[in-house]
Structures are given as C-alpha cells and as structure tokens.
Amino acid sequence: MNKRLTMVGISLLVIAIIYSACAAPAPAPAAAPTPAESAAAAPAAEQPAAPAAQAGSRLDLVKSRGKLICGVNNQVPGFGNVDASGNYSGFDVDFCKAVAAAVLGDANAVEYRYASGNDRFTLVSSGEVDVLFRNSTWTLTRDSAEVGMEFMPVNFYDGQGMMVRKDSGITSLEDMDGATICVQSGTTTELNLADVFRAKGLDFTPVVFEDNDKTYSAYDEGRCDGFTTDKSGLVATQTKLSNPNDHMILEETMSKEPLAGAVFQGDPVWADAVRWVVNGLIQAEESGVTSQNVSEMMGSADPTVKRLLGVEGEMGAKLGLPNDFMVQVITQVGNYGEIYDRNLGPNTPFNLPRGLNALWTQGGILYAPPFR
Amino acid sequence: MTSSTLSTQRPPFYRDTRTIAIMLQVLFLLVVLLIGWFLYNNMVTRLAAGNTAAGGALSWGFLGQTAGFGISEGPTFRPEESYGRAYLVGVINTLRVGIVGVILATVLGLLAGIARVSNNWLLSKLAMVYVEIFRSTPLLVQLLFWYVGVIAALPPIQEAAPLGDLGYLTNRGMYLTWIFPSETGRALTWWLLGGVIVGVMVAWLRRRQLERAGVPGSGVMAGFAAFVLVLVIGFLVALGASQMPTTTTYELRRGDRGALFEDINGNGAFDLNVDRPLAYVPITLYGADGQVVASGMTNGDGAFRFIDLPAEATRLEWTTPAPLVVSEPQRQGFNFSGGISVTPEFAALLLALVVYTGAFIAEIVRAGINAVNKGQWEASRALGLSTGATLRMVVLPQALRVIIPPLTSQYLNLVKNSSLAIAVGYPDLFNVSRTIVNQTGAEVQGILLVMATYLTFSLITSLFMNWYNKRVALVER
C-alpha cells in the first residue's frame, strides 16, 4: 500500500515536471513569428535573435521602441559619468544624445546602460544595447568577425599614458623597471602595457581590476607604482585621487587609441545612420553651424550647409532618418566642438587641449566625408 | 475456480507498475534530451546570426594563440605564452586559494565550533559573536573589508614594517624569509613526498600494532619520526651528490639581469620550456675591468636582476649551492625580491573565504557535537576521562557522521566563492577567463570552460568527501 502511494506520488511529480517542462518552451515558437507586433512591447534583449536574417533593422526597432539604449561608462568624468542623482553626462554620453535626437527627434529619449570593460562588446553583440559609446579603442580584432563590432568614425583620438607619484623619482617609462602597475582588465591598455614593457625589455607586475574605480583606488592607496589608461582617462581620473597634485602623467604615449562608437556588425542600415550622425557633428563644426545659429543657418546659401540641414537634397531619407535630423542634433546637443568644450574644454576641470582632435583645417585630424 | 483464474491472469502491460516506472523514466529522459537539444540549437542559431567568432560552431583554436597580457601571480607567466596556459595559471591560482582555504577554514571552524559548546562563558560568547557576525554579512562585503579596510591600511612599501627577522609587512603584501630547495636539492621535493608516504604507512602499522596489543595511543609520533628520518637521509644524499650540470650557461642582458640555466639544446641561449633554469644558485657578477659589481642568488625561475650597479656586468660566475638555501626578502627598486611573498589580493581572498566559511563550519561542528547523546559525555566522565579526552575519543568520532555531509557543501561553496576574486583583482580562473573572453570574443567557449572546470573541482571534492563519509559512517552489525 505504502509503496503504491509512493509510486503514485512519484508519477504525479514526474508528470508535473514534464508538463512544466513542455509548457515552458511552447509559447516561444508561438511568439516568435510575430516580432513586428511585439517589437515595441517586448524587452530589447529578446529582439535581436537574428537582426541580419530578418528584414527589419535596428533602426526600425529603435524607432518603434521610442527610446535609444546606449552603452556608456559611468566612472570616467568628462567622458561617461553618472552623478549622485543618476544623471549621465560626458563626451560619450552626448554622442548617445545626438543619435537619439537624430533618430527620434528627442535627445533625452535615451536609456543608459553601464558597460564594463569586460562585457561591453557582449552587450552589443547580444543586442542589449543599440549602440556603444564607451571610450572603446578601434582595433582590428574587435572590428573583425571574431568580436563582431562595427566601428563608427573615431570621435576621440587618444593615446595610452602612465600616471606616477611625483615623489617616486620616475620621469620616464625606462625608470619603471620592476614596477607594479595597476590596470583595468579587458582593455587594449592591458595588452599595450605588456607590449611596451616587453619591447623595452623591462619587468613589471600587473595588478588587474575589473573597473576603473577599483583600479585607480588601488593605485591611490599605494598598491601600485603606476596607473595606466588612456591619457584622457588619466586626466579625468586624476581629479578623483585623494591628492591630485601629488601625481603626474609621464610624457610618453604608449599607443594609439582611436576611440569610437560601435554597433552590431551585420546591420548596415543602422550602422550607416549612426555613422552619419557622428560625421554630421564634425561637419557641422567645420561649416560653423552651432546650436546658437542653426535657425539662421537654415537660410544659408552654402550648399554643404543646406544639405547638412536637410534644406536641400534627401540626405536624411537615404539613411532612413528624417531629413532635418542634423537640425535636431545641433539644436539639442550642439556640434562636435560644442560637445568637446562642454565636457573637456577650458571651462571644465580637465581643460584638455584639442590636439589631434581639432578639425583638419585647424591642425587636427578630424575630417568628415562629404555630405552629398 | 474463478478466484484461481483471476490470480493467474496478468494485468495489461500498461497497468504493470514496473512498466509504468520504466516508461516514465524513458519519458523523463526524452524530455530532458529535448530541452537540452532546444537549448543547444538555440545557441547555435544565435551564434550563426550573431556573427561572432564561432560562426555557428565552437572553435577552440584561440587557446593556442599568444595571450599578450601579464598575470600578477601564480606560476611564472609571460605575455608571449598562450591563452591556454594563461587559463591554466588561473586554474592553479584557484586551487591554491581553494586548498589552503579549505584546510584553514576547517581548523578555524572546528575550534570555533568546539568553543561554542565550551563551558567557558567568555570563550563560548566570543565564538558566538564571531559566528553571528561573519555568517550574517555578505561575503563580497567582507572581502572588500579585508582588502580595502585592513590590508590597504598597512604601511606603504617605503615604510615597510619589519616582522622581526622574519620579513616585512606592507600594503603591497607580506614578504617572508623562506627556505627553498636549490638546484642541488631538486630531488628533495621527491624525498618530501616519499617521507609523507613512508610516514603515513609507519603510522598506520604502529596503530595496528598498538591495537593488537590493546594499548591506547596513536601512531602519529612514530609516523612523524619516520618522516623526519626520510627527510634527513634525503638531505644527506643530496649534499653528497651536489653538483652543477656540466652545460651550465648564463644569459646576461642590459648588464644587470639574465638567467642561469642548463643549456639542454646547446645553443647558448635560454629557450623557454626547453632549457632548464637553475634555481637558487649563488652568483657573482663582474664588470669589464674584472671588478665585482654584484653578488647574490638566482630566484626560483633561475633569473636574476640587480639594480643600481656601479658598472655594467660583463661576466658571471656561479658556485655550487647547498641543497637547501635561506632566501631573505630585500628591498630592490620598487619591490622586495627574495623570500616568499603573499600578495594583498591572495591574502584578502583567503582571509575572507576562511573567516566566512569557518563561521558556517563552526555551526555544523556545534550541531554535530550536540547531536551526540548526552549520555556519552556522562559515561566518559564516569570512566574518568577528561573533557578533552572525551571530546577527542568519544564525542568527535560520533559527531563526524553528522558533520561530514554538510561540511562537503561548505567545501564546495568555498571553492566556488573563490570566483569573487575578480572583485579584488586576484587572477583566479574566472578572472583570467574574463580577460581571455574579452580579448578573443570567445564568449560561449569561455563560459563552458569555466563551468566545466568548477564542475570537475566540485565532483572531485564530493567524491573524496563521500568516500570519507563512508569510512566514518556507523558500521551496522
């Protein structure tokens, strides 16, 4: 009797398990064939199953969602930072706003997602974020099918530097033989560090952390002799150290770090849209269109300005964007120069000279392909 | 008549409980396989759509590519070595913290557990406070507390606090004087292993002999004596045979650093994984004029490096070392060299894991002791056994049966929790795997590798503990 009861119990249990197991995958195929209807309602993560295979582009998805999901940093003042009340600001953040203004007409229709050094590319390839603006270096491997990023035009030319204590007696990398160096994991920085020291035949010990805050605080506490990241990042981080004036950045530049936005490889429509927003920002500065004078410039006789602002030609339509997309971007966010000055310029604590990031007409290497 | 026909008539097969049982099992297996296939298929489709490295199939070729990044501790790792080897270094680092952690957590947990049931009011309350605090706060918080709050607060390396003659304590880690087997004492590691085996065997024989004679006592002392004897013989043998390899060669770079090695392929240059580095050999460096510019000892990897030499060294001479050498930590440039060092990352992780898991083990030990019938205590006291002897010989052996199964879970937890190492930058297997995945884009492979590794660790631990559990289980007669 007892045995039979047990048997019945087990059978019931097994049947229950089988039912629940069957029930779980069942709704999935039912929902899958109608992504167009559910696109707006469904969470972003479920959508990108095969953006390339499906007809729809991420551009349509962003439009129907009414919001841009942007992967950013939240620990580097000036580039991507979040304040106590949860507001994002910074150079990279403004590029997210520009894309949102171009696609949706509203610079504030952005949902920010923190992308760590380790998971940023996964966020893009899995479709968690639409676009990544997170001081990421454009490299061959990341661009290739191996990591699968599609890089946007470079929006900041940077180079890797090294921060040391002024009283350490270090004046160049040659003095750092045998030093312990704090570095963030999953970055090109980590690889350049090893390359540079290997090339010079010097020994070093890396101490590797998963995010910028942990890395610089370990350096601040004296765990390391040096702290390395992109020079812009060093300048930004120096303001966060307990005694910023006790530290200095070595002259040497250890690498080329062209920082650029990135989207999912294999969605040319979306990639083109974002690419030309970045180009448009640079072109706007070159043409002298600013957030102040944009309405006057609408009446400009310059054909380049006319095309840029959608007064003439169908530039926006060719990208699947409104024709006046750059008007929205410039009115709400400003041109490249305004973004730079607002976040990194002379009126900020960083006061970073434009250097390579000046327009090609002014001694830099920023150059937008023609708007035609 | 009717009743007999009824009894011989077999029920239809679908009502036979044995058939039903088998059918259900088969059905269940099918469902499991179906779900597995669905998940695998889903992954493959999405990989193909997501044009990642895999492109639909999982390739493992990346493991052979050059890593290009450095690893702060563990077995020596150079950036020019492969991702596969980098991962292996991560695995060894996990094992280092896991094995030491399990041993220390057991000791701490046992002591705290016994203290909790002690009659000493102060001791039992102290143990209670320890258990309650460390059991009730998250491990990650504790880990950061040890790393940021305790270790980072130690003096900086410029003002290293000396620990008597033993070494130094700084916020870069602890540096201790240590004894190492040198080049001529290489065989001592094997003698050590042999000594352990002989020691265990002698201890076992001695115990059996004592048991047969009916004399109380254990074989531990005899085993230990045998162990020491083997080691002494090993040392004397090594001393008698100490000789440097005939093809000993050195490589001198930048006039102040290089390596001493046995030139196995005879090409005069040090080749990784081919030539054998010579560890802990005394060396003297000479300058161009024949003057001595530095003297010291090679390190465990046969390498040496001096700083601030009066002149560039052009020549090197070595002497035959004793089988065992004492290496003292010395300030050299930015860090200490020589001796052994414990990094802050390792120390913080180990402390956090041991203290946290120890609190849980203490509760398990307390439960085990309380599970032993009070009559056992009273009976042993009536026999005139002291409290310590009662605990050791009567209570703990019985408590072990209750203790072992939950203890296994705690060991598994400790090993798995070590993946929190990423929070303090300790290069365990998870931390290293994240870097590898980020550099290569091999997401799925990376996660599969990590899961398979942890699963292997856990299964081995479980197997061992189950075997031990069977040994201490109550033998039913």
Write a concise synopsis of the structure shown.
Helix content of chain A is 39%, strand content 19%.
Question: Can you tell me the number of structural domains of chain B?
Answer: 4
Q: CATH topology of the largest domain in chain A, what is it called?
A: D-Maltodextrin-Binding Protein, domain 2
CATH superfamily of the largest domain in chain B, please?
Answer: MetI-like
Order of adjacent strands in the largest pleated sheet of chain B: 1-2-3-15
H/E series of chain A, N to C? HHHHEEEEHEHEHEEHEHEHEEHHHHHH
The backbone outline of chain B, from C-alpha atoms, is globular
Largest sheet of chain A: 9 strands, mixed
Structural class of chain A: alpha/beta
Largest interface: A-B, 58 and 55 residues
What structural category do the secondary elements of chain B indicate? alpha+beta
Written account of the structure:
Chain A has 2 domains: 58-158 and 258-362, D-Maltodextrin-Binding Protein, domain 2 (3-Layer(aba) Sandwich); 160-255, Periplasmic binding protein-like II (D-Maltodextrin-Binding Protein, domain 2, 3-Layer(aba) Sandwich). Helices cover 39% and strands 19% of the residues of chain A. Chain A contains 16 helices and 12 strands. In chain A, the strands form 2 sheets. In chain A, strands 1, 5, 6, 7, 8, 9, 10, 11 and 12 form a 9-stranded mixed sheet that branches. In chain A, strands 2-3-4 form a 3-stranded antiparallel sheet. Chain B is an alpha+beta fold and 477 residues long. Chain B folds into 4 domains: 3-49; 83-153 and 344-472, Orthogonal Bundle (MetI-like fold), CATH 1.10.3720.10; 180-240, no CATH class; 248-327, no CATH class. The model of chain B is unreliable at 51-56 (pLDDT under 50). The interface between A and B is large, with 58 and 55 residues.
